[in-house]
Amino acid sequence: MNDYLKHYGVLGMKWGIRRTPAQLGRTMITTKRQLTADKVKLDRLNSGKHTSVGFTKKRRAAYDKRDKDILEKRIKSNEQKLANKAAKKAAKKKPSVKEMSDDELRKVVNRLQMERQYSQLSESSVSKGKYYAQKVFKAGTTVAAVTTTALTIYNNADKIKNILEKTKG
Q1: Per residue in 14-39, pLDDT tens?
Q2: Are 68 and 42 in contact (CB under 8 A)?
Q3: How far is CA 56 from CA 24, 42, 45, 48, 61, in A?
Q4: Which H/E stretch holds residue 28?
Q5: How buried is 138 (Cβ within 10 angstroms: 0-12 exposed, 13-18 middle, 19+ buried)?
Q6: Alpha carbons 114 and 120: distance in angstroms, whole number
Q7: Which of 20, 53, 54, 81 gets the highest tally of CB atoms within 10 A of its CB?
Q8: Are 51 and 67 in contact, with CB atoms under 8 Å apart?
Q9: Crossing angle (nearest 10°) for helices 31-46 and 57-92
Q10: Can you give the pTM of this predicted structure?
Q11: Domain residue spans in the chain?
């Protein structure tokens, strides 16, 4: 009898939790590729070639109509997605200095100068670690100064005692 358990699952996977194809490392079909594939299928349907095979003529016509409607909706949706992506990409693109008007360039330069002046005038933000280190160093130098003063007094105690006795006597 064997005393071990064979496991054919994915390491770290929880029971009852499903993972998306992206989490499994599989890439989803891109919008452009899906769009071209859908257009090819729609052209086949429009040219009279059937995508649904093995059905009666009546059923085949119904399935072809359904497939055509689905493909048209998906093509429209994917074209809209691509148009939105292109619009976002165009909106993100910053115009170059050569494309800017004098007024736009002046506004950008003024903004950058004001930001630089503000950062110079405002208190510099010191990280907690740096603040703590400065505090420790300051305390350390104070302790070192007090210690050296105490050692100096201890080492010269006889001399100080002699000086005090001379002033009294």
Answers
A1: 777 777 766 766 655 678 888 888 88
A2: yes
A3: 40, 21, 17, 15, 8
A4: none
A5: exposed
A6: 10
A7: 81
A8: yes
A9: 150
A10: 0.41
A11: 16-92, 129-168
**Gap between the Cα atoms of 104 and 115, Å rounded:** 17
Tell me the pLDDT tens digit for each residue of 109-164.
999 999 988 888 876 666 788 888 889 999 999 999 999 999 999 998 888 888 88
User: Does residue 56 sit in helix, strand or coil?
Assistant: coil
Contact residues for 38 (Cβ-Cβ < 8 A; gap 6+): 71, 74, 75, 78
Q: How many residues does the chain have?
A: 169
Residues 6 or more apart whose Cβ sits within 8 Å of residue 21: 27, 28
b/e map of 24-57 (b: 16 or more CB within 10 Å)? Answer: eeeeeeeeeebbeebeebbeebeeeeeeeeeeee
* Cα–Cα nearest to 38, from 64, 81, 67: 67
Residue position matching structure tokens 């497939």: 67
